[in-house]
Amino acid sequence: MEQRFTIPEGYQYKRPLGRGHLGSSYVLQNNKGSYVYCKEILKESIGNKEQVQKFKERIERIRSLNQKYILPYFAVLEYDNKLLLLRKYLNPGNIIEEAPKIKALGPNKIFAMWCALARTYHLLHQNHLAPNLIRATNLFFYNGSNIIITDLYLATNDVNVMVHNPSPLDYSFLAPEFIAPEYEPDYKADNWSLGIILAYFLTGEIPFNTKNVFTTLQQINTGTLQYAGEVSPEYDTIIKRLVKVNPTERAELSDFIKMNDTLKTRGSKRSLPRNILSPSPVQYSELQLNLPKSKPLESIKNSRSPPANYLSLASYMVIGGQSTDQVLRTYDAADIPNYRCRQAVPQLRTSQLPPRKSSQFINDL
């Protein structure tokens, strides 16, 4: 049988993996006996010469990040009409194949794992690598507690993965801006996808009706979620803050990363309090803060920062869609000694989170 694949020097062809977005993929084996994943992409499927060059530069930029949860391509081999991308071959299953195991972790471990995934995409956004084509088949569940990202291709509004495979697994994680032209996709498209992924982790099912393509696309365009299982109120709020049709209304990933970092300090009590993530500001309009009676009201009102016990409370709260790094600083003299919160004032908003140091994690795969 005639071999249809291009085999680079020093490698042996082992088996095909099928055709996906941009081209075919297959397994190779190098001279040391290690298995290698190979992606074969026709240049014409990327675009013109300039677009091909930008594609190669993006692959190199991702590799240079040396991020422990990204498995990058270690080589780009260029031929007259095609590119061959090479990376390590992963044995673990993707998140679709491992959905039951992920769901069995329980909400708290799932949220911690999801936050690590969100941190990785936040790092990509900091390096202007967005929007990304996020597909469930490119996310691998590794070592029982980690998600490894592979094949980070740039997603644009002219990319139509349904042409290659009209499967819900391809389009159900895409933001509405890839389906309807009302908004230009940017990094907030990744935030939508991560909201859908969190719902998928918690329930083991895509949160849309996937029996009918038209219905699925309609639910995506309207942001209508349909959970297959129970999702507690606190996680439902997180998901719905990300899954908003208007990209400008979607929450920042940094909000939830910082929330998770704060929860880590609570050790075994890291579960999210049920009333902390309520989307309704009404619930907190009567929130009472037990501040010291000995501290005069004026000294509190004139202070540049709220009392320490108040800061610790505000660091956990998401109120009415406000960010977790917003601090409530207005008090009512009529409520002494229990001062009532009246409005939220943005303070010390931090959109940049320092990337975690890389490790030998990927090298150990």
From TrEMBL:
The keyword ATP-binding applies. PROSITE patterns: PROTEIN_KINASE_DOM. It comes from the Eukaryota. It holds the Pfam family Pkinase. One of its GO terms (molecular function) is ATP binding. Residues 11-263 form the Protein kinase domain. Keywords: ATP-binding, Kinase, Nucleotide-binding, Serine/threonine-protein kinase, Transferase. InterPro entries: Kinase-like_dom_sf, Prot_kinase_dom. GO terms for biological process: signal transduction. This is CAMK family protein kinase.
